[in-house]
């Protein structure tokens, strides 16, 4: 079994295609990059660069707290839930790893990937809304890739009603495997950070983490209420602190941007044989920090009530912007404005803690540990919200499977806090890789539905705007 997991991991994450570059460098392209980048470009072109063209509308729709239906979550709440999982380890450890391996230039490629990923996230959100169902267990709505894959296969392949679709089942199983693996990664990261910052034994941190998580996730609808408070506070706190530190070192910003752009395209990287490393580290970390295309966030998008599916698609596009352009950039700037002598010989979370120690002293180390706890814990709550519709798709509308999966995730959370089992970590990566493949299988042929919905929204929006202008002229 372990050999099989490792083989699938290498197939999904290893370099499937290698392109030689000048200077003796090579550009290795994993299967998932070959799948996600073309998908993002495809939707960016088909939506006519939606993230740029509709930037003001994205902001307006995303920040609207209005609930369309009692019992269902709002578009803003669906954004908060999806942001809870996007804004996690990838914004801290992922960015650090990208800069450690690819230099400052990797940040530029993370930005590019985020712009492309916004279009993919938009498409996922629209499809999730178009194919959502009433949720008899939790109230409101449920859905996600398992549901829109099922509907597509039922209409275009089976051409008759089916209780389940093979690809939809495989997506749901892959998701549940992935989220169990991530549970272990979360608790291991938190217990390690608290041990470094406070010298608290991992056992105590893990017990506290599991108890708090159990109190929340084993209650029927506590998850969204907790995330409503937790996500804005944690993201706002991290953003505020990092912005203050950047402004205090604003004289270093021109050189930071110069490094980012120079190393992203610079001849020095090409000549040294490192351009491929710079680009691919930025692309990989960007793709899997914002989760666009993996099929996770649509599980939250489907739960929202909205008068038009495009509105939820726009909120999901904004979620990618928050994750990569805002939060990941904050982490990158903090590292890059720190003198190299202060971070020499460090990597991973030690690099970030060293940078924060330079700017804030011992409090900086503690701050990173606390923020990591908040980011990771919110991710755990978010992934269990994602699990709900997938458990229901596989096992029907019964409470027992829902609670059994939550208990399994809590057990994995406990085990991960005490020891790191790399096989289970690989299992999580295999799960998200398979989710992405099954999700993208549906994203391409269902693009027509997405574009028709976008045209309908823009047409209706244009009519409202023209009517408002006419009224203003008459008055």
TrEMBL record:
- Transmembrane stretches, by residue range? 27-45, 166-186, 198-218, 230-250, 256-278, 318-340, 360-386, 407-424, 430-447
Q: Which UniProt keywords apply?
A: Cell membrane, Membrane, Symport, Transmembrane, Transmembrane helix, Transport
Where can this protein be found?
Cell membrane
Q: What topology in the membrane does the UniProt record assign?
A: Multi-pass membrane protein
The superkingdom of the source organism is: Bacteria
Keyword Cell membrane (UniProt): yes
One GO cellular component term of this record is: plasma membrane
The record ties this protein, via InterPro entries, to: Na/Ala_symport
Report any Pfam family annotated for this entry: Na_Ala_symp
Q: Which residues form a coiled coil?
A: none
PROSITE patterns to which the protein is assigned, alphabetical = NA_ALANINE_SYMP
GO terms for molecular function, please? amino acid:sodium symporter activity
Family to which this protein belongs: Belongs to the alanine or glycine:cation symporter (AGCS) (TC 2.A.25) family.
Q: NCBIfam families under this entry?
A: agcS
In Swiss-Prot or TrEMBL terms, this protein is called Alanine:cation symporter family protein
Q: Supply the source organism for this entry.
A: Bilifractor porci
């Amino acid at each position: 079994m372990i050999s099989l997991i490792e083989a699938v991991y290498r197939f999904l994450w290893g370099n499937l295609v290698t392109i030689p570059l000048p200077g003796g460098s090579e550009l290795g392209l994993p299967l998932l990059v070959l799948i996600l980048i073309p998908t993002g470009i495809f939707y960016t072109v088909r939506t006519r660069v939606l993230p740029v063209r509709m930037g003001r509308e994205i902001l307006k729709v995303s920040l609207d707290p209005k609930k369309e239906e009692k019992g269902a979550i709002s578009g803003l709440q669906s954004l908060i839930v999806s942001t809870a999982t996007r804004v996690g380890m990838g914004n801290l450890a992922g960015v650090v790893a990208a800069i450690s391996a690819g230099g400052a230039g990797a940040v530029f490629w993370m930005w590019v990937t985020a712009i492309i990923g916004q279009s993919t996230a938009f498409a996922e959100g629209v499809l999730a809304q178009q194919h959502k169902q009433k949720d008899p267990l939790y109230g409101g709505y449920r859905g996600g890739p398992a549901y829109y894959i099922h509907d597509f296969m039922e209409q275009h392949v089976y051409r008759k009603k089916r209780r389940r679709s093979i690809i939809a089942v495989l997506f749901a199983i892959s998701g549940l495997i992935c989220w169990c693996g991530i549970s272990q990664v979360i608790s291991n990261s938190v217990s390690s950070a608290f041990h470094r910052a406070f010298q608290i034994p991992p056992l105590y941190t893990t017990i506290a983490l599991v108890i708090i998580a159990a109190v929340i996730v084993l209650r029927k609808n506590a998850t969204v209420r907790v995330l409503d408070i937790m996500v804005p506070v944690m993201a706002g706190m991290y953003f505020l602190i990092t912005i203050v530190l950047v402004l205090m070192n604003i004289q270093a910003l021109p050189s930071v941007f110069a490094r980012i752009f120079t190393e992203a395209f610079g001849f020095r990287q090409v000549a040294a044989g490192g351009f491929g490393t710079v680009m691919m580290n930025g692309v990989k970390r960007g793709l899997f920090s914002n989760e666009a295309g993996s099929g996770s966030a649509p599980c939250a998008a489907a739960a929202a009530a909205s008068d038009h599916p495009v509105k939820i698609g726009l909120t999901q596009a904004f979620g990618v912007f928050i994750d990569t352009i805002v939060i990941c950039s904050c982490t990158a700037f903090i590292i890059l404005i720190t003198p190299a002598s202060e971070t020499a010989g460090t990597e991973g979370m030690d690099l970030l803690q060293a940078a924060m120690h330079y700017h804030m002293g011992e409090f900086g180390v503690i701050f990173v540990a606390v923020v990591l706890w908040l980011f990771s814990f919110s991710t755990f709550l978010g992934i269990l919200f994602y699990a709900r519709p997938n458990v229901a798709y596989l096992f029907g509308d019964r409470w027992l499977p829902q609670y059994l999966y939550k208990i399994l995730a809590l057990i994995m959370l406990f085990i991960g806090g005490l020891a790191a089992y790399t096989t289970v970590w690989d299992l999580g990566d295999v799960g998200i890789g398979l989710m992405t493949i099954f999700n993208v299988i549906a994203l391409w042929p269902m693009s027509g539905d997405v574009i028709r919905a976008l045209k309908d929204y823009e047409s209706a929006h244009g009519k409202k705007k023209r009517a408002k202008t006419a009224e203003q002229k008459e008055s």
